[in-house]
Every structure is written in structure tokens, then in C-alpha cells.
Amino acid sequence: MSRPVGNVRLKAARVAAGFNSQQALADALTEVSPQLGIRGLAVGVRQVRRWESATPPWPQPEVRRVLTHLLGQSLEDLGFTAPWGVEGGQGRGVTQQPMPSTPVNTRRVPVPAQSTPAKQPVSVGRDFEVITRSHRRLYWSVAPATLHPAVLEHTELGRALLPEISNPGRRLLAAALAESYLLAGRIEFFDLQQPEQAASTFTRALQAAGEANEALLGSAVLAHTAFIPGWAGDREAAAERMVAARTYARRAAPSAEFLAWLDAVEAECLTRCGDPATALRLIGHAEETLAAGSKHTTPAWMDWFSPVRLAAFKGNTQLEAGHLPQARETLLHALDSLPPTAEKQRTVVLGDLAAVEAADGRPQEACDYACQALEQLASTWYATGMERVREVRRVLAPWQNEQCVRDLDDRLYDWGTTVSALQR
Asked: What is the pTM of this model?
């Protein structure tokens, strides 16, 4: 497979920001410039096309200001090189970014292109991938706050090694680096509830996937970026991300499971945006896709989806649609079918079952499920699961003087749970 030609870092940042075409970015740059006090600036699609070429020209000062404002990254992050060079720019207001000293800063460091002769053996790519694979497995049992710094340090190592290795090891390293960034972003979004940090990390993941020319991995990253506006209720932005994700998937060989997951992601975004009816139709399509199967295999890095997880998606959507008997049946089946290692998903399903019972006017049953979710959260923290429990407690407000609800409050606000929630 040949390497992609052009400035993949700018293209990745553009797509991750929701601009699916070069024309869309050009229009946005022109429209936003007056907001920054810049009058008369007009950017055309030909200019954006030149920026995404293999030798992007250095933008003019006013354009640089608008471009970095709109995409939220520095020019160097976006694949541009100053005409005077990084090392020669000390007297011109350009300084070389220092190596981050803490994991917190690694998201700000661009994915570098290879600009120096290879210094590392090709085997480095495989060695780096082994650690990435280990982190993937550790995610399901290690506390997010513990694993997250280690994953970010690993991405920093990969970023430093990438310019020092030639193909085919470079492509292997870039793909593993993209997966590591994706894992870091998943932890930030789902476990730590840090959507802004996750958005930046997902952009790094997409840039690394572009370096590896891995369209399917790029599709997975883009689908994850759709969660951010989707959970915030921005249906249009989420839909744009999903169009991009499906476009990237068509360039690869997606398995039936991967295509069903794309449907599930879009369905969850639609549910969060108040359209569970359309979401249920998408989930039905996902079920048909899984039943039909595919000759293509699911990549090893896609370990977050399965038919039982699709059922959990479906149960939540049925709950939001007000189909309580169907939601109860779907979620109970999903709970029975979850493997023992799916502790995080178990908290979500238990929380949704509690929500079903609360919506059905059964506070005792709702509290029982919520307490089970809290017991699971005590051993395996998952911010998304905790949010489900908190939402149930809000719904239970009419029964707050009932003993079962008071018992739930005692459990929800005990010392360990309260301190853990504040720490996270």
C-alpha cells in the first residue's frame, strides 16, 4: 500500500473539525475572519488544495491567525514549515516547542513527518505495537486515572520515534500510535468526561492514521469524534462526522461488525439529540448487517463492540423512546449475555435498567439496579456508568422520602464514592 501524498496533518485536522471538503474549510475561514477583526479576507478552495499538497506554502500572517483559530492547532501541528525553518526562527518570533515534561502536554505535540535518515531498526514498529496491544487489554480492568498517563507517555514515545524509522516499520508504528491516541481519547471522553481534551487527542489519532494510510482506523477515529457533538445535542455536527467516518470506511474493507458499530454510533448520537425513532431504525439495520455477515474480519483493535453491546445500545434507545417493556426485555438479555470482563458496560446496562424501572414508577426495583451499578463502579470506575446512576436519582426525586431511595443516597454519597467522584 502506497503512502498518502500530501499534508495529511492538515487534512486530518480539517476532517476532525467537521469540514468534510476543502471548500467547506475555505468558506469557514472566510466567514470567521471578521469575528477576529480581519476584514476583506477571502480564502478559495485552490488555496486550501495547495495547503494540503506535499509542499504546502507558508500562509500569510492574517490567514495564519484565522487558520489556527478555526482548527485549534499551531501551524507546525498542521503540517506547515516556516520558510526560515524552525531552528533559524529564533530571531523571528518562532521558537521550537520543547519536549513535553508531563503527559498532560503530549496532546499538543504534532505527529511528525519523517525528515531525518532512519536511525531505528524496522523492528521498533513491532515492539511499539506490542505495548499498544497491552494497553488495549489493560483498559478493561485498570483504573482510567492510572492507565491514562501511561498511554499518553507511550504516545510521546511513538511521536519521538516516528521520524527515526523507515517503512515498513514506520507505517506499523504510525498505526499503533494512532491506536494509542484513540485509546487515550476514549479514556478522556468516556471515563474522565473531558470532551475538549478528547477532541484534541482524536485529531492526533487521525493524523497518525493518515501517516499509516489506515482508512479503517481513520473511520473509527472519526466515528468517535461524532460522540462529542452528539452527546452535546448538536445533531448536524455529529451527522457530518458520521458522513466522514462512513466515507473512510468505504475506502477500506470493513467487516459487518464494523459497519454495524457505525450504525450504533449514529443511533446513539440521534438518541442524545432527541430522535430515538430514527435511531431504532438504524439499530435495526445494524442487526441485519450482523446477521448477513461479511467476508472481511474485524480488526483486533476494535474490542469495544459486539452483538451484545449493540443490544445495550438498543435497550437505551428503547428507553428514551418510551418503550419500557421492550427496553426491559432487551437490557435484561444484554445483562445476562455480557462476558465477565465487561464490567464497564455492565454498569451502563444496570443504570439503564434502573432508569426503566424509575420511568415505570417502580422505585424499589430502580434502586436495586442502581445499587448494583454502584457496587460495580466501586471496583471498576466508569464515568459514563456513574452518570447513568445520577440521572436515575434525579428521576427518583418524587420518591426521595422512600426508604429505598434513602438507602440509595447512603450508597451514592458514602465516603468512598463521593471522594472518588470528586477526584475524577
From this structure: 0.76
